[in-house]
Amino acid sequence: VSGCISEEKEAIAQNYLIPQAHSSSGLEEGQVLIETDALQSLIKWYCRESGVRNLQKHIEKVLSLLSFELNKYSKVY
Questions:
Q1: Where does the UniProt annotation place the signal sequence (predicted)?
Q2: Which residues contact 45 (CB under 8 A, 6 or more apart)?
């Protein structure tokens, strides 16, 4: 079975991985936008292997860190 090419990975990320990571990190849909250039760089430089498992982990990590930062600075003291 051949692996995914970068265009396929980008489509899978936009349609499935990013929305799933939004909900699992506690972010609302559209609260954080991952631009196409950023996603392409992530795929090109950090997710070279076939498949999307590593891409999913990187997207989840980015959105989790963003969620943490947003929550940290949105608290009223």
A1: none
A2: none
Structure tokens of 74?
Answer: 């949105």
Question: Minimal CA–CA distance to 10: which of 49, 46, 39, 51?
Answer: 39
Q: What CATH number corresponds to the domain at position 65?
A: 1.10.8.60
CB 54 within 8 Å of CB 47: yes
Q: What is the pLDDT of residues 25-43, one digit of tens each?
A: 988 878 889 999 999 999 9
Both tokens assigned to 8? 């396929």
For residue 63, what are the CA distances in angstroms to 4, 34, 77? 23, 9, 25
Domain count, the chain: 1
Q: Is the pLDDT of residue 11 over 80?
A: yes
Determine whether 66 is exposed, middle or buried from the number of CB atoms within 10 Å of its CB (0-12, 13-18, 19+).
middle
